[in-house]
Amino acid sequence: MSAAADGGFAQLTQGVLATLERLRAAREVTVGCSQRREVLRLGKTTLQHYQPLPGVRPAGRRPLLICFALVNRPYVLDLQPDRSLIRRLLEGGRSVYLIDWGETDESDRHTTLEDYVLGSLGGCIRYLRESSGGEAVDVLGVCQGGTFALCYTALHPGDVARLVTLTAPVDFHTPENLLSRWVRGVDTELLKECGNVPGDVLNALFLALMPVRLTQHKYVRLLTGAPDQRAVEDFVRMERWIFDSPPQAAAALAQFVRLFYQENALLRGTLSLAQRPVRLTAVNQPLLNLYAAEDHIVPPSASAALRGRTTSSDYSEESFPTGHIGMYVSRAGREGVPRRILEWLRARE
Amino acid sequence: MNNPFFSPGARPEELYTRAASGFLEMLQRMGATLGAQAPPDLSKLGAPLTEQFEQWLRFTQGSGPWMAGGFPGNFGAHAPGAAAGFGPVPLGPAAAGEGQRLWELLSRLTTLQGQLAAHLAQIARSATADFLARAAGRPLASAEDALRLYELWVECAEGAYAAAARREDYAQLQGELANASAALLVEQRRQAESLVRAFGLPTRAEVDALYAQLRELRSQLEALRAAPAAPRARSAPRPRKKARPSPGRRGR
């Protein structure tokens, strides 16, 4: 190689070392930025209310309840001031509530999907209805939480006024769904018998969907991209969230894998929760379905399958040019998603 | 895989350092292999690239993603054959027969890990072949060139992996690996149960039974809490007492 090339490689190496130094300095970054307080506790699940922002006029009278997935922590929706879906919703004047599922431990081994969907999600919705004069509430279901929100709405349509789903899987058998292919042969009874599944196992599964990009390439890009300290801190916040996965309750996970990933029961109309049939056709609320065009965890086809499956006469959807996590933190996601939700709600007051 | 941020004693920079050193090692290997030729003969990279990628795949997915992170016991973590070192634990009164079952499960898991290793080797070969075909004639005279080649390598590696991972036999193998690992874990626990029972210690079965009772009691308690409101609502309305006029209403 030429001397110029040698110089280029030396510069690249120096850049990598400098980024490593910034990464060490960014180790103590904090996550979460909006003030909130617990207003309800149901076992380990808590309902959190976000404090309205000073000087912002309330918009709409209904509370907006966010139901996040079980497989990750919901603080990705409020990571930092400039990357916070929750903050944008507060700036839009919404009264925002969030379900925090709490810390799963061995005592949750037998916790079922019914406990989560009908007990926790249902309990939070009932509480909000009672505290707002009996009015139905608006629900924003995210990822697996969107699937839960659809199930609950199908069973209790009178409780939900308007429903927004964000990267929510509905059809688990679309050809792009690699995760679904892999888990179809899993013996869910055996899985349940193993006890709670550690978050690290699920993380390994998600990383294995695109191993080179997710465990090597993204770090190399960071290291060679000469990021400043702020960009490094943003990156570390996301890393913290990605690897901060709670354990999954054995019974609920086994049920979710069997009913949704293996049997595709929600889409097929064969799903029952607590012996009650869950039918998408029972969902007749105004419905906004948002999903990511480059999602490798919930392929866009899995979310778009909601179109035409409900009896809502007011169904809208939008695809964003980003990936699953990008829906919460990328530029496309953090600007476009809250704006779309706020506009959609405003148009239906 | 541990959470690099929350595991006790874990150092998140290790994650980045590992990625950085892997990348720099790749660059060095490129430099050492290709020397000062222009255009470089990239075919010389074939064997080392395949070897490096296969090793990496085996390290990250040796036992399949389901078990890689570590169910309690961390069966078969990271490398094919690692499970074999775990060995059966002949516990309890019926240990003699149960030891055989454990060996069978371990043997099954090792066989499946061997099948996975064969898939990973094939992925590494396909990735390299695709890379060499697409990289032929590209320059490697600067750090930017190297980065562009690296991007191409990632594309080829991910493409080869995705093609294999979507195949039916690969998906089936993932399920079988998960089931074999889970069966092994369940069998070991079953043997441990027989031992703790012999010592009069509480077993998982007992804890589960207690939990079922607790759950039943909770639901009964909830039903009782809800009950008082329901009969009142359904009962016939009582005759209303004649209301005494309040001072505010007097005279209206």
Write the layout of secondary structure elements.
The complex is a heterodimer of chains A (349) and B (252).
Chain A: H1 3-25, E1 36-42, E2 45-50, E3 63-67, E4 78-80, E5 83-84, H2 85-91, E6 95-100, H3 113-131, E7 137-142, H4 144-155, E8 160-166, H5 178-183, H6 188-193, H7 199-207, H8 211-224, H9 229-243, H10 250-262, H11 265-268, E9 272-273, E10 276-277, E11 287-292, H12 300-304, E12 315-320, H13 326-329, H14 331-346
Parallel strand pairs in A: 3-6, 3-7, 7-8, 8-11, 11-12
Antiparallel strand pairs in A: 1-2, 2-6, 4-5, 9-10
Helix pairs in contact in A: 1-9, 2-14, 3-4
Chain B: H1 12-34, H2 46-61, H3 65-68, H4 95-135, H5 143-165, H6 168-198, H7 204-226, H8 229-234
Helix pairs in contact in B: 2-4, 4-5, 4-6
- The fourth-level CATH homologous superfamily of the domain at 30-176 and 250-346 in chain A is Alpha/Beta hydrolase fold, catalytic domain
Q: Strand content of the residues of chain B, in percent?
A: under 5%
Q: Roughly how many Å apart are the termini of chain A?
A: 67 Å
Determine the number of helices of chain B (DSSP H or I, runs of at least 4 residues): 8
Biggest chain pair contact, residues each? Answer: A-B, 61 and 62 residues
Text of the CATH class of the domain at 30-176 and 250-346 in chain A:
Alpha Beta
The class by helix and strand makeup of chain B works out as mainly alpha
Mean pLDDT over the full residue set of chain B:
74
The proportion of residues forming helix of chain B, as a percent range, comes to: 55-70%
Mean pLDDT of chain A: 94
Q: What structural class results from the helix and strand content of chain A?
A: alpha/beta
Give the CA-based shape of chain A.
Answer: globular
Order of helices and strands of chain A: HEEEEEHEHEHEHHHHHHHEEEHEHH
Distance between the termini of chain B: 79 Å
Sheet having the most strands of chain A: 8 strands, mixed
What oligomeric state best describes the polypeptide chains here? heterodimer
